[in-house]
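Comment on the following before class.
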Amino acid sequence: MRDYLEFEHPIREIEEKIEKLSAAAAGGKTSAQGEVRKLRAKLAQVEHELYQNLTPWQRTQLARHAQRPSTLDYIGELTRDFLEFHGDRSFGDDRAIVGGFARFNDRTIMVIGHQKGRTLKERMQRNFGMPNPEGYRKALRLMKLAEKFNRPILTFIDTPGAYPGIGAEERGQSEAIARNLLVMSRLSVPIISVVIGEGGSGGALALGVSDRVLMLEHSVYSVISPEGCAAILWDNPAKIPDAASALKMTAKDLLHFGVIDDIVQEPIGGAHRDPKAMCTLVGKALTNQLYDLTDLPVEQLLTQREQKYRKIGSVGGLPPAQPGASPSIN
C-alpha cells in the first residue's frame, strides 16, 4: 500500500481510478481499456508537473517519508558480507547508528549510517534515528578502524538531529559530535557521505565531514528543522513552509552554495516509489566518487578536504591554511 502525502492527493485520485478501471478491463470491458490508457497519460503529466515544482516544505515531507529507503536498505542492496559492529566500548550500543565492514564493488569498505526504523516499534528501538553520544562514539570507533586498515568510508545521513535528552547531554553529546567533526577532518582515507533523507543539524554533520557529499534529489540538509525555525522566529506553526524556504535546505540550493558536491536524481515520485532503482542510482554515484578519490595521495586528499570546507560560506575566499596549522588529535 502506498502512503500518500497531502499534496499527492491529485495523484491518488487518478491512481485509484486506474485501479478500478483496470479491474474492469481485466473482466473484458474494452471501453475500460481505452480509459485506462487516457488516465495513465494524464497521471504521467500530473506527476511531471507536481514533482518538478515541489516547494521546499513538500520536499521535506518526501525526505521524511516512512517508506523511503533506509541505510540498511542501501547496505542490503549495494553491498555483501556486511559485518555489523556494536557499541562504543564506553557506555553501550546505540541502535540509531549502524555500521561495519562490507564489500562494495569487490572492495572492502566501512559503511556507517543513521537508521530510523520503519514501524513504530522499530522507530522506538532506533530512537527515531536520533543518536545519543554513544552512537557517535561508535561511529568514531569504526572510522578509526577503517583508517587503521586503509579502507574508504561511506556514510548515509538520515536523522532529524542528535537526541536532545538530559541523559545524552550528561554523557557529552556536544563533545561527541565535535570530536567526530575534528577526527573526520583529518582521517587519511577517502570519505563519501550521502544524505538519503533528512539531514538535521550537528546530528547529521557528525557523519558528514567528507571528501564528497551527495544528496538525493528530494532530501534536505539544514542547521535546524523548519518546525524549529518557525517556532523560534515566529512562534507560529503556520510559518513552517516559509521557514523551509528561508533555510535553503534543498539539494538544488546546497549544490548552488557549494555545500554539497552532487545530486542523485530520484525516480518520479521519490525514492520510495522504486527503491531498487534508487539503490542502483546511488550505487553508480558512489562508484564514480570512489574511483576519483581512491588513488589520491594522503596529503592531497587532506588538502582538498580542508579547502572544500574553508570555502563554504566565504564571500571572497579565505587564505590557504599555513603548514602545520591543523589541530592535533588526541
